[in-house]
Write a structure and sequence with these properties.
heterodimer; A: 185 residues; mainly alpha; two-stranded antiparallel ribbon; 2 strands; B: mainly alpha; 8 helices; globular
């Protein structure tokens, strides 16, 4: 563990910036900062977004769990509930389909000069996030905790060693990618 | 260094790059890559300009203080990185209406602007409602095998695909 490094606030801000620069570079080079590519994925005519995401998930899943098994990293799974994850997720999806960018690729789109992302999407996202903060106390009381399952992970749910899930899941994802590629999508 | 000026890289190369970057973030910063809390923090900072310090008393801003943190810097980095990438390949261009949009709905800047604004608002509410976005849940969460993230990403795409198909094939 790099605990001393984790505690250095200013250095961490610099690391965040550097990781962001590489992330933005990759997203733009992948073409996924373009509206046309993202909406193509949602219209099921262009599978670039899924290819990028699934490859990242396979790589990251093996790497992060390897570091965890070696005692070099800790996991931070997000808590969830049906009221927050399903309703919020579907709302997010509706916004995703209307806007054609997601919160990260939108920033990348601004960096490549997309003005609909800057003046429409970003303003909308800030207003939306502000509205959520405004209504958060009511939502927390009435909706967000319905069917709460906490920060559960799949290995904990099935009570098994994570690697027994990671390896077959990685093989399954790679098989799916090969199938997408060979069927010409 | 020709590859730096290529217009597009293989999605698999990009995916491996992002996957490795996630590992580096866990290792060096003990943080999963994510983007949407930066919008909450920024929204709070803007609101504070108008309403002053009492904004910090809102329950949500006690959880996510309106201040600059690691994830906020990451989001600034995304802008810089995408700008560098687009500049190197000559792809940087001011664009009001994306071509896929204009070929179906015309060149109206106003229409595309209104639609982006509405889409952004719904997404902003949804991202914070679900506690994450396509990066935080979709990549960082699923790679940790979090139940919440797998469920969230399925909902993102179910909602997204249904909405996009409706907009492009019904209207």
């Amino acid at each position: 563990m790099f605990r001393t490094l984790h505690a250095k606030k200013d250095v961490q801000l610099g690391i965040g910036l550097l990781i962001g620069i590489l992330f933005g570079f990759f997203l733009q080079k992948g073409g996924v900062t373009r509206y046309d590519v993202i909406i193509g994925q949602l219209l099921l005519t262009d599978f670039t977004v899924i290819k990028v995401m699934l490859t990242a998930v396979v790589t990251g899943k093996i790497g992060v769990h390897l570091f965890k098994s070696l005692g070099k990293a800790e996991l931070h799974p997000k808590p969830g509930s049906f009221g927050s994850t399903v309703i919020g997720g579907l709302l997010f999806g509706i916004g995703f389909g209307i806007l054609g960018y997601c919160p990260g690729t939108l920033i990348g789109a601004i960096g490549q000069g997309s003005l609909d992302a800057l003046l429409g999407g970003m303003v909308g996202l800030l207003v939306g996030a502000g509205l959520f903060a405004e209504f958060f106390p009511t939502l927390e009381k009435k909706v967000l905790l319905i069917g709460d399952f906490g920060d559960l992970t799949l290995p904990k749910l099935f009570k098994m060693n994570p690697w027994i899930l990671i390896i077959p899941l990685a093989i399954g994802i790679i098989a799916l990618l090969i199938w997408i590629e060979t069927s010409g999508l | 260094m020709e590859w730096l000026s290529l217009k597009q890289w293989s999605p698999y190369v990009v995916g491996i790059g992002i996957g490795l970057l996630s590992c580096v973030a866990f290792l060096l910063s003990d943080k999963p890559i994510g983007c949407s809390t930066a919008y909450s923090r920024t929204s709070g900072m803007i609101e504070r300009l108008f309403r002053g310090e009492k904004v910090g008393e809102k329950a949500y801003y006690k959880k996510f203080t309106p201040s600059i943190d690691w994830e906020w810097m990451l989001v600034i980095g995304i802008f810089v990185g995408a700008f560098i990438s687009a500049s190197l390949s000559g792809e940087f261009r001011a664009e009001w209406v994306p071509s896929k949009w204009s070929s179906t709905f015309g060149n109206s800047v106003f229409l595309r602007w209104v639609v982006s604004l509405v889409g952004g608002m719904v997404m902003g509410i949804g991202a914070r409602w679900a506690g994450g976005c396509t990066s935080g849940h979709g990549i960082s969460g699923t790679l940790q095998l979090a139940v919440s993230s797998w469920l969230a990403v399925i909902c993102f795409f179910v909602g997204g695909i249904a909405t996009a198909l409706l907009i492009y094939h019904v209207f």
